[in-house]
Each structure stands twice: as C-alpha cells, then as structure tokens.
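Need tokens for this chain, all 372 residues.
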Amino acid sequence: MNPQSQFCHNPDCPDRGQVGQGNIRVFSQKERRYECKTCGRTFTASKGTPFYRLRTGMDVVTLVLTLLCHGCPIQAIVAAFGFDERTVADWQARAGEHCERVHQHLVEQGQVDLQHVQADELWVKMVGKRVWMAMAMAVPSRLWLGGVISPHRDRGLITSLVEKVRACAQSPAILVCVDGLASYVTAFLRVFRHPIPTGKRGRPRLVVEQGLLLGQVVKQYAQRRVVSVKQRVVRGTPEAISAVLASTGTGHGINTAYIERLNATFRSALVPLVRRGRALAHKVTVLQAGMGLVGCAYNFCWYHESLRLAAPEGASRKWQERTPAMAAGLTDHRWTMLELLSYQVPLPAWVASKRRGRPPKQACQSALAVAA
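Here are the structure tokens for all 372 residues:
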C-alpha cells in the first residue's frame, strides 16, 4: 500500500483530489483502507475503481473483463464461472464507466499530436432496432480517440464525434480523411474554428483553422457492391494532403483503410458488434460500456504490430513493442488489465462553496459599527 499515490475522496475536504500532500496514511493493512489526516475520513483502496464494494476478488473480475474484451460472450462466462448474468453485466457497466473517465482524463486533454485522423461509422444490430456507432482514430499512433452511439446517422452523431477529436488535438492543423457523408465536412468546419476578437460588442467572428485539411473517399455501390471509388479534396490542396501522408507514412492517397481496420477490430472484440451473432445487446448503455472498455484496452493494454520499432543493439529481443498510447506519448509502458481497472482518476480540487442567505448577526453588527 502506497499512501503517496492516494488522494482523499471526501467532497468536503480541502485536500480532496490532491496527490502527494502528505495527508494520507495507512489506516488498516488487512482491510486495505487509508485515512485522510485533514478531514479524518477513511476510504478503501478500491475507491474510484470498478472493484469498489465488490465481494468477488479483483483477479477474478479482471479475468472476466479481459475475456469480455476479447469477444467472449457473457453467456459463455456464465456457463464457465457460474456467475449470474446480471452480475457480469454489472461488472462490464462499471468497467465501461471507469474506462470512459480514464479516456477523458488521459486522452481528451488536448495533448495528442494527431497529424492524420480518420473517422467512420458502422451500424450495430440490437434487439428490435439498429443503432449507429461512430469512431475516430489518430492514424500515425493508431490511437482510438473515442466513439459516439446514436439511433440516427445524422449531423448530431458526427458533431459529437468531431468534438471528441477536437478535445484530443494538440493542434488543429490536421489531415482528416472520411467517407462521402456530407455531415463530416459540415461538422469539422464548424467545430475546428476559433474566434477573432475585434473589440466590439457581440460574439466575435469564427474562422476555420488554416491548417485543417479535409479529404473524402466517395464509394459508389451497385447491388450492394462497390463499383467505383473516388478521392475528393474538400479543403486544402492535393500537394498538402500528399505531404502529410508522406510525412506520417499513412498511404499514398486519401483513404479510410485504417479506421475500417479498427472497425473490424472492434467487431471481433465486442460481441454485440458481430454481424451474424446471437448475443445481441438490449440496451445502448451496454454498447457504450463495451466500447469504452475495448477502446481503453486497445489504447493502453494491447501491442500493435505496426507500431513496433527495431530494438537497440545488444537487446534480448529483435523488436520493441508499443501500444497506441505509448506511440502517442501518453505512457511509457504497456498497462496490464489490472492496472487499467485500478487506475484512479484524480478529482477536481476542492472549492469553497458560496455562503447563501443572510449574513450572521455578528457580521451585521460589526458592519453597522464600522459605518457609524
């Protein structure tokens, strides 16, 4: 147990969410509890993680969630381990919410050099309906930037996805390659804007970022087959787009091959996304939790073969493996599944609440005395 890596979770504590302040001490080794010296509250080591108040051991829960990340149906886990189906679903929901917080804290902080982004959407068959899942990735690092689920393939879905991309981008000067859906062009041109102050009243004029490049891959179908593919430059010049593709080593022309490969990875790792399967999802929240869990495992826990580098001379191995998070500079090692699920997202600093109502009687008397 390391008190230096813990922080107080009490919302009324002045040292809430602050790590390394020296206010945390070990309260019980047996129960794995800490105590805050500032407020006197105690809390368990699993506070803020999916393991909080679970009776099942952390190793078993981690094993089950690892199987869920690799395409194992819940029904198979129930048959193998003997757990109730609702219990496994609750673990997945907890882990999905936790991974979304980890993704927002580590990825959506505007610190990733995206350079080249690809986005796409895929339809997901559910019980009695069909929904759309839109996702985006940074191609040079293969980093998953997030996803959005909506019952309709409209501008609202695409705009929410583009806002996630904007939250991750260190610089708005990026190349974006998408399919022929017109909502992508509108969403990127609206989200990737910055105000120009004029000193006058009213909202300042918004201008699209100069370095934003947009390219589309338009496919024409006949009898559910692709008969022709056209590459279209929407914003920028062909020379500028070719320069970005050459510098990042992500192709020789406008393409969406990398995001389509990522879609295939998610379809193989998340059971409800399988095209001809029987383990369909009943609720959108199940898809949302599964997408967040698989996305964070893909970013932090899975090695990507195309990201490996030649090991230095004298090393025991030929290649130096890397995860997308390592390639993006978000971490320096591959996380284990237990490390991902045990990661505690820091809380915002404590802010004293405003005093509401009438001031105290003594304060009124002192104010009157000063005025006199």
